[in-house]
Design brief:
200 residues; mainly alpha; 8 helices
Length: 200
Amino acid sequence: MTNQKKLTLSFLYYLLSAFGISLTLKASIGVSSFNSLNATLAEFSHIKIGTITAGLNFLFLIGCLYLDPKKKLKNYLTMGIALLFFGSTINLFTYFIFPLFSLHAYILRCLLFILGTIIAGIGTGKVLKYQLLKFPIETFCLFLSERTEHSFKFYRYSIDLICILTALLFTVFFHLTLMVREGTVISFLLLSPVIAWAKE
């Protein structure tokens, strides 16, 4: 497979991951740790969640650029473009398409969340498999682990914990919608195995 085809597929799977995230948001039973912070900040600031998601990812991308010993600006430009499409896709489905229908039954919302998590996991796993586009948070943690004595897993879980705690603090102090719920637990248990399977 040529690099051009891999890059095209990577972009499509990037957008598939964004679609999966949008489904988990529609389910309204909580979201993953990082997205719990995104959703909380979106409600607090009245900025669309896809925009918040892309913005926070851009911050990690800047961190990656600073830590990367082999800076290739072309790669970072490509990742930046991918993030813009990623955030726009989340906004498209969350604010324009999914509001056209509603789900009231709790079991259906749980099933929708599981479906969204699986789709997001497959998209993420395939992107990681092709190794052309990267996810800024994971790349940032990888660079940190290479420069310190702590592992990738340590930094990744630390970011998850910080996201959850920050989301909870905002929720309590500003009386926002609680985003750290059962969906957060489901995502924690399901997402990594799906990513690992799709990456093979």
